[in-house]
Amino acid sequence: MWKAYAKHLAKRGIFLFLTLVIATYATIIIANLGGYVDGILRKQIEFEVSQYLARSPTFRELSPEEQEARRRELIEEYIKAAGLDKP
Description:
Blueprint: H1 2-32, H2 34-54, H3 57-60, H4 64-82
Helix pairs in contact: 2-4
């Protein structure tokens, strides 16, 4: 009876250990994708700002240098608002 109990505990212990290892590995992989997701969000912000400015009649009246400066300024504001400027 004790052998069966010990065998059962050993199996459960091994199973719990493997579960812990797999969960830790998955968590690390998901956490490391954060930089990839941040890149996607940055590109989305750049696209949305560009689309917004393309529809703005006042923006079209600016010189190309002023347009680019305004575009960069808005992108930086949106990135800060989304919290993507922090590690």
